[in-house]
Protein backbone atom coordinates (compact mmCIF):
# COMPACT_ATOMS: atom_id res chain seq x y z
CA UNK A 1 0.00 0.00 0.00
CA UNK A 2 2.86 2.41 0.79
CA UNK A 3 4.21 2.11 -2.77
CA UNK A 4 0.73 2.69 -4.23
CA UNK A 5 0.16 5.75 -2.04
CA UNK A 6 3.52 7.30 -2.92
CA UNK A 7 3.26 6.64 -6.66
CA UNK A 8 -0.34 7.86 -6.81
CA UNK A 9 0.52 10.97 -4.79
CA UNK A 10 3.42 11.72 -7.13
CA UNK A 11 1.24 11.20 -10.22
CA UNK A 12 -1.52 13.42 -8.83
CA UNK A 13 1.08 16.10 -8.11
CA UNK A 14 2.60 15.76 -11.58
CA UNK A 15 -0.74 16.03 -13.33
CA UNK A 16 -1.73 18.96 -11.10
CA UNK A 17 1.36 20.87 -12.22
CA UNK A 18 0.68 20.02 -15.88
CA UNK A 19 -2.99 21.00 -15.60
CA UNK A 20 -2.08 24.16 -13.68
CA UNK A 21 0.32 25.23 -16.42
CA UNK A 22 -2.27 24.36 -19.07
CA UNK A 23 -4.89 26.39 -17.21
CA UNK A 24 -2.60 29.38 -16.81
CA UNK A 25 -1.31 29.41 -20.38
CA UNK A 26 -3.45 27.25 -22.64
CA UNK A 27 -6.89 28.22 -21.42
CA UNK A 28 -6.27 31.92 -20.84
CA UNK A 29 -7.60 32.98 -24.24
CA UNK A 30 -10.45 30.47 -24.42
CA UNK A 31 -12.22 30.69 -21.05
CA UNK A 32 -13.70 33.40 -18.88
CA UNK A 33 -11.77 34.50 -15.80
CA UNK A 34 -14.44 32.81 -13.65
CA UNK A 35 -13.96 29.50 -15.49
CA UNK A 36 -10.18 29.72 -15.14
CA UNK A 37 -10.61 30.45 -11.44
CA UNK A 38 -12.79 27.34 -11.08
CA UNK A 39 -10.28 25.28 -13.06
CA UNK A 40 -7.52 26.49 -10.71
CA UNK A 41 -9.65 25.41 -7.74
CA UNK A 42 -9.71 21.88 -9.15
CA UNK A 43 -5.94 21.95 -9.63
CA UNK A 44 -5.36 23.31 -6.12
CA UNK A 45 -7.46 20.62 -4.46
CA UNK A 46 -5.80 17.94 -6.55
CA UNK A 47 -2.38 19.17 -5.41
CA UNK A 48 -3.42 19.36 -1.75
CA UNK A 49 -4.53 15.76 -1.91
CA UNK A 50 -1.42 14.66 -3.80
CA UNK A 51 0.56 15.94 -0.80
CA UNK A 52 -1.84 14.16 1.54
CA UNK A 53 -1.26 10.82 -0.20
CA UNK A 54 2.51 11.37 -0.02
CA UNK A 55 2.20 11.99 3.71
CA UNK A 56 -0.11 9.03 4.26
CA UNK A 57 2.29 6.79 2.34
CA UNK A 58 5.52 8.02 3.83
CA UNK A 59 5.28 9.96 7.06
CA UNK A 60 2.03 9.57 8.95
CA UNK A 61 1.70 6.78 11.52
CA UNK A 62 -1.50 5.31 10.11
CA UNK A 63 -2.67 1.72 10.18
CA UNK A 64 -2.78 -0.23 6.93
CA UNK A 65 -6.57 -0.05 7.06
CA UNK A 66 -6.53 3.74 7.50
CA UNK A 67 -4.07 4.05 4.62
CA UNK A 68 -6.36 2.05 2.33
CA UNK A 69 -9.45 3.98 3.36
CA UNK A 70 -7.63 7.30 2.86
CA UNK A 71 -6.34 6.18 -0.54
CA UNK A 72 -9.73 5.19 -1.90
CA UNK A 73 -11.49 8.25 -0.50
CA UNK A 74 -8.86 10.63 -1.91
CA UNK A 75 -8.73 9.01 -5.35
CA UNK A 76 -12.52 8.93 -5.64
CA UNK A 77 -12.80 12.46 -4.28
CA UNK A 78 -10.21 13.95 -6.62
CA UNK A 79 -11.72 12.21 -9.64
CA UNK A 80 -15.22 13.42 -8.84
CA UNK A 81 -14.36 16.86 -7.43
CA UNK A 82 -11.44 18.06 -9.53
CA UNK A 83 -12.33 15.95 -12.56
CA UNK A 84 -15.85 17.33 -12.75
CA UNK A 85 -14.56 20.88 -12.33
CA UNK A 86 -12.12 20.35 -15.21
CA UNK A 87 -14.91 19.07 -17.43
CA UNK A 88 -17.44 21.71 -16.40
CA UNK A 89 -15.06 24.62 -16.94
CA UNK A 90 -13.65 23.42 -20.28
CA UNK A 91 -17.05 22.72 -21.89
CA UNK A 92 -16.65 25.66 -24.33
CA UNK A 93 -13.47 24.04 -25.66
CA UNK A 94 -14.18 20.32 -25.39
CA UNK A 95 -17.91 20.32 -26.05
CA UNK A 96 -18.27 17.84 -23.18
CA UNK A 97 -21.36 18.76 -21.20
CA UNK A 98 -21.69 17.11 -17.81
CA UNK A 99 -23.93 19.80 -16.36
CA UNK A 100 -26.68 17.20 -15.89
CA UNK A 101 -24.44 15.34 -13.45
CA UNK A 102 -22.69 18.35 -11.92
CA UNK A 103 -23.95 17.08 -8.56
CA UNK A 104 -20.92 14.76 -8.54
CA UNK A 105 -18.69 17.73 -7.66
CA UNK A 106 -19.99 18.09 -4.08
CA UNK A 107 -19.98 14.30 -3.70
CA UNK A 108 -16.28 14.40 -4.57
CA UNK A 109 -15.80 17.14 -1.99
CA UNK A 110 -17.59 15.04 0.61
CA UNK A 111 -15.28 12.12 -0.16
CA UNK A 112 -12.24 14.36 0.33
CA UNK A 113 -13.66 15.56 3.65
CA UNK A 114 -14.27 11.94 4.61
CA UNK A 115 -10.60 11.13 3.97
CA UNK A 116 -9.58 13.86 6.40
CA UNK A 117 -12.12 12.59 8.94
CA UNK A 118 -10.75 9.05 8.62
CA UNK A 119 -7.19 10.28 9.17
CA UNK A 120 -8.26 12.40 12.14
CA UNK A 121 -10.14 9.45 13.65
CA UNK A 122 -7.06 7.26 13.24
CA UNK A 123 -4.92 9.85 15.03
CA UNK A 124 -7.42 10.09 17.89
CA UNK A 125 -7.30 6.29 18.30
CA UNK A 126 -3.51 6.24 18.01
CA UNK A 127 -2.91 9.00 20.55
CA UNK A 128 -5.17 7.68 23.32
UniProtKB/TrEMBL annotation:
It is found in: Membrane. Pfam families: DUF423. The chain crosses the membrane at residues 47-63, 70-88, 100-124. InterPro entries: DUF423 (IPR006696). One of its GO terms (cellular component) is plasma membrane. Keywords: Membrane, Transmembrane, Transmembrane helix. It is a multi-pass membrane protein. Belongs to the UPF0382 family. This is Uncharacterized conserved membrane protein. It comes from Leeuwenhoekiella blandensis (strain CECT 7118 / CCUG 51940 / KCTC 22103 / MED217).
Amino acid sequence: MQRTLLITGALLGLTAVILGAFGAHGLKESLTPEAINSFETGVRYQMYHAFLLLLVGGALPLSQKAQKISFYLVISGVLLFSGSIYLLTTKPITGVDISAIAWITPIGGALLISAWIAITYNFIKLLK
